[in-house]
Design brief:
Layout (H helix, E strand, L loop, with lengths): L5 E2 L2 E2 L1 H59 L1 H77 L3
Antiparallel strand pairs: 1-2
């Protein structure tokens, strides 16, 4: 558990704010990781669906081969060539799909990281702006109080 130094009015606000910033950053990082993982799961499910479609195509070619084997010996050689070509093509398609999925995931992760960094920067800028605005308002209030002290 985090310990804070005490000041005249309670805990040191800078330490508390720094701790809160750390907690916020950690939570945002975890949320970003969960979103990235959810996206990765969705991509993998899509990829699995595509793989099932490719398997269906390979099974279709195998049935065609069986039918052609019953007809002619030469048709057998031709069907073997078609089967081999289809299998190689399916492997290439699956490999391309995996490469594309990995590229998409990497791009999504980079965008998520960039967005997370931008959000953190924006949050810091908002906190800085709030502190500055508070200081200006306090200065203005001090000036009003000083004016009230002046006798006319």
């Amino acid at each position: 558990m985090e310990k804070f130094n005490r000041t005249a009015n309670g805990y040191d606000p800078d330490e508390v704010n720094a701790f809160l910033d750390q907690v916020i950053n950690q939570v945002e990082k975890i949320v970003g990781e969960l979103k990235a993982r959810d996206a990765r799961i969705a991509d993998l499910e899509d990829e699995l669906s595509k793989t099932d479609n490719l398997r269906d195509k390979v099974e279709q070619y195998e049935r065609m081969e069986s039918t052609l084997n019953k007809a002619l010996y030469m048709a057998q050689k031709t069907s073997d060539q078609i089967k081999n070509n289809a299998y190689k093509e399916s492997e290439l398609i699956v490999e391309d799909a995996k490469k594309n999925a990995n590229r998409i995931i990497n791009e999504a992760l980079l965008r998520a990281e960039k967005t997370e960094d931008e959000a953190a920067t924006l949050k810091r800028n908002i906190n800085i702006y709030k502190r500055r605005l508070k200081a200006i308002i306090e200065q203005q209030l001090d000036m009003v109080n000083d004016i009230e002290k002046v006798d006319f």
